[in-house]
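Honest question from a wet-lab person: if I give you the sequences of every part of a complex, can you actually get the arrangement of the whole thing, not just the pieces? Trying it with mine:
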Amino acid sequence: MPLILKPGSRMVVATHNPGKARELAEILENRFDLVTAGQLGLPEPEETETTFEGNALLKARAAAQASGLVALADDSGLSVSALGGAPGIFSARWAGETKDFSLAMTRIEKEVAATGVADRSAWFTCALAVAWPDGPAIVVEGRLTGVLTFPPRGDRGFGYDPIFIPDGEIETFGEMEPTRKDAMSHRALAFAQLRAAIL
Ligand code: ITT
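Yes, you can. This is the full assembly:
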């Protein structure tokens, strides 16, 4: 049976990151009756997989099983070419227990400088997984390339947005109008695939 999501159906967004939850709600444009994992008091599973897709599936499945609802999860992160793709799936973990992204951005700046490599290219990845409570699941991935800039610029967005300028743009994601970010982001690219697959 093909996997289909009906507009208006109730869905849990399996994230505890408010920045992501806001962007996902904007990108989904009231298509669904959304409730967040935080609102349902669902536990945050440990991210034990080694890929964005693996971790997105793990989070979606855990939320679908715990809630009995269709669940959407996002696993995402920033990969830096000069650092061989780090922090990648460890993007949230580089900000430490206190989720201090100015610390994480400074670490990236220092580690890139220490390599002596001139390349400042980087990319954001977003894996989106949808899991149904009775077992089926689907996962897709979107990627957006850009360049890093230091010091960080702008206080919009979240996470690593202030150091990332998408290719062809002059503003960082931290400076950009949120609707512009939502139109081009790795999250939007992943959602376009999801829409093609199940909507
Ligand atoms: P959940 O697992 O509860 O969804 P999390 O923040 O732990 O929240 P991830 O493990 O997927 O989520 O970590 C992704 C990190 O990558 C996130 O904390 C951000 O710092 C960063 N990131 C992902 N998308 C981003 C974006 O659009 N802009 C800036 N940083 C982003």
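Two things worth pointing out. The pocket of inosine 5'-triphosphate is lined by residues 15-17, 20, 44, 47, 59, 74-78, 91-92, 101, 124, 157-161, 173, 185, 187 (CB under 6 Å). Residues 82 and 112 are 6 Å apart (CA to CA).
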